[in-house]
Every structure is written in structure tokens, then in C-alpha cells.
Design a protein that fits this description.
NAD(P)_epim/dehydratase; L-threonine 3-dehydrogenase activity; alpha/beta; binds (3R)-3-hydroxy-L-norvaline; 2 domains; 11 helices; Rossmann fold
């Protein structure tokens, strides 16, 4: 059986940094090539600086390491994307086109493309949003993910590229800091609670959004990629649900451990983005096609986050 060699773009990002370590555990440290725009001296393993908008640079790494799978995690997220819409479109689409073309030309065996619940707009049923809802995203980030899903399906249908995708909810984890997302409040709030500092939330207290704990998000990624190709009946992207909650609910969960934790609400431009997204997700297709099931509810996530963040902060002392 051929040795799998895995290339990850955006390997220093919130998801990419955790996924890199999980893929090293699965395939071996020497068989995972982590890449990102800037060097990452603290990374343990094989790391290459890569601007994924550079087709030749990507090709060079794929050939140099005889890459067999690509996880394309690099992207500008929703909130940051709205600050420079045309640049966001250019970068998110150009990097995807490069990954698709390099994968087609060099017969990469499997590709992972992360989509997002940001592909949905305000005109769908926001409760238990169905897999096949029409996609009218309100952000450029969401537009790039909706377009990307269709390009993924096109490369599967036209070239037989085995590309798979899931629509991540807001990802929450202790291992890495998010960057430029609308759901980032749900990570920042834990850091403030641990440091016994008040938290000002940029969303209103009743803003319910679909979220997923990092461990579940990474397991969903591995499981969709491990499933037999014949089981993958959706080649745009799968709805995946973790747990839905709003700032008030996560604050109350944290207060079971930190009763005096202070939270205030000051909605900003990200409130408009959140109001256009689903409140909860119907992930029946993922359950049926590759047995998806989340393990973390709000209480389990809160407990695990606080336990691990406390350990992380203690290490820094
Ligand atoms: C964002 N964390 O906020 C990402 C994610 C569903 C949200 O796509 O942009």
C-alpha cells in the first residue's frame, strides 16, 4: 500500500494547527507537511513556508514530498473578509483553484475542502437548516465557500477528484486562537473567565449560532476523509452539527464554575453577519452517509475548555 504523504495549507490557523498534530498522529510526523504563509518556529514536524496563491510554489512542494493528500485549510474568515471583500475573494478562490488544479495534474488521491455554515443566508429556515437549502451567503467569505463547494463538486464530476468537504459551525477549542471569525467570541470568553477578567461580547445575548467543539470538528474531518468513497454521496459539502447556543447560555455554563464572571454585550458589525446565519443545523446526511455523531454538548465543552485552559495558563506562569 502506497505511503500516504499529507500536505496541509493554513497549518498555523485555528483548525489547521490542531489538525496538523492529529494527522501526524495518524500518518506519522515525517509524512505530514505543514505549510503556512509565515514560518512557525514552534511547530514540531515538517514545515514549509507556502503562499498557496502561488501555483508554482504549491506544485514544487507536492512534487518534492510526493504528496498524496491535501487538506486545504487556508482562508480569510467572515469578519476579516468583510474588511477587504475583493482581496478575500481573490485569496480564498485563487488558493482553492491552485489546490484543485495541482490535485488534478498530480493525481492527488484525496482532498479536503473546509466549508462553513456561512454559506447560508437569512432567507432559509434558520432552525435545523436543511442540507439542501439554497445558498445566499451575506459575507464574501460565505460566497467563497458556496462557490468553492460547487467547484469541488465540479472537479469530482468532471475529473473524478476525490474531494470531500464539511460545513464547519463555529469552532471552539483551547489549543489555538481563532482569527477574524464571527464566532470567535465563544473562544475569547473562556480566556477572560480563566483570567478572572470581565468579557465584552460583540454579539447580543440571545444570538444563537451552531458551534462545534474542536475535538468533534477534527474527528468529523478525519471521519469524512476515512469513509469509503462510495459512501460520500454529497460532493459539495456536508452539514455537520455540534451544539447550538447563545452568549447568555455559554455565560451561564461558565458561571457554574466561575459564579462571579462578568459579561456585558456590545454588538458590532458582526451581529449582522450572525443574524444571517442558521441557529441550528440538520446533519442527517452526514449521519446517514458516514455515521457522524457529536460527542460534546455545552456542559462537556465548557468543562473541557476550562480544565485545559487552566493548565495552559499555569504552564505560562
Ligand atoms: C467564522 N469561525 O466565524 C468561522 C466560521 C461558522 C463560522 O466559518 O468566520
Amino acid at each position: 500500500m502506497q505511503q500516504e504523504t499529507i500536505l496541509i495549507t493554513g497549518a498555523s490557523g485555528q483548525l489547521g494547527s490542531v489538525l496538523s498534530k492529529r494527522l501526524q498522529d495518524k500518518f506519522g510526523v515525517n509524512n505530514v507537511i505543514a505549510t503556512d504563509l509565515r514560518d512557525n518556529p514552534s511547530f514540531v514536524g515538517q514545515f514549509e513556508i507556502l503562499d498557496a496563491t502561488d501555483f508554482e510554489a504549491l506544485t514544487t512542494i507536492v512534487i518534492k514530498y510526493n504528496v498524496t493528500q491535501i487538506y486545504h485549510m487556508a482562508a480569510i474568515l467572515s469578519a476579516n473578509g468583510e474588511k477587504n471583500p475583493l482581496l478575500t475573494w481573490d485569496i480564498n478562490m485563487k488558493t482553492l483553484f491552485n489546490v484543485l488544479e495541482v490535485s488534478r495534474i498530480h493525481t492527488i488521491s484525496k482532498v479536503f475542502f473546509p466549508s462553513s455554515i456561512a454559506v447560508f443566508g437569512a432567507n432559509v429556515n434558520r432552525d435545523n437548516t436543511p442540507q439542501d437549502s439554497n445558498l445566499t451567503p451575506s459575507t464574501v467569505y460565505g460566497m467563497t465557500k458556496a462557490a468553492g463547494e460547487n467547484w469541488a463538486n465540479y472537479y469530482y464530476e468532471k475529473y473524478g477528484l476525490d474531494i470531500r468537504s464539511i460545513r464547519y459551525p463555529g469552532v471552539i477549542g483551547y489549543q489555538s486562537l481563532p482569527g477574524g471569525g464571527t464566532t470567535d467570541y465563544a473562544v475569547d470568553i473562556f480566556h477572560k473567565a480563566i483570567k478572572n477578567e470581565p468579557f465584552e461580547c460583540f454579539l447580543s445575548e440571545k444570538t444563537t449560532l451552531p458551534m462545534i467543539y474542536m475535538d468533534d470538528a477534527i474527528r468529523a474531518t478525519i471521519e469524512v476523509m476515512d469513509a469509503p468513497s462510495v459512501n460520500i454521496k454529497t460532493r459539495t459539502s456536508y452539514n455537520v452539527a455540534g451544539v447550538s447556543f447563545n452568549p447568555e447560555e455559554i455565560t451561564n455554563a461558565i458561571r457554574t464554575i466561575y459564579p462571579d464572571f462578568k459579561v456585558t454585550y456590545k454588538p458590532d458589525f458582526r451581529q449582522g453577519i450572525a443574524d444571517s446565519w442558521p441557529k441550528s443545523i440538520d446533519d442527517t446526511n452526514a449521519k446517514n452517509d458516514w455515521n457522524w455523531k457529536p460527542n460534546y454538548n455545552l456542559e462537556a465543552m465548557t468543562e473541557d475548555m476550562i480544565e485545559n485552559l487552566k493548565a495552559t495558563y499555569l504552564e505560562k506562569i
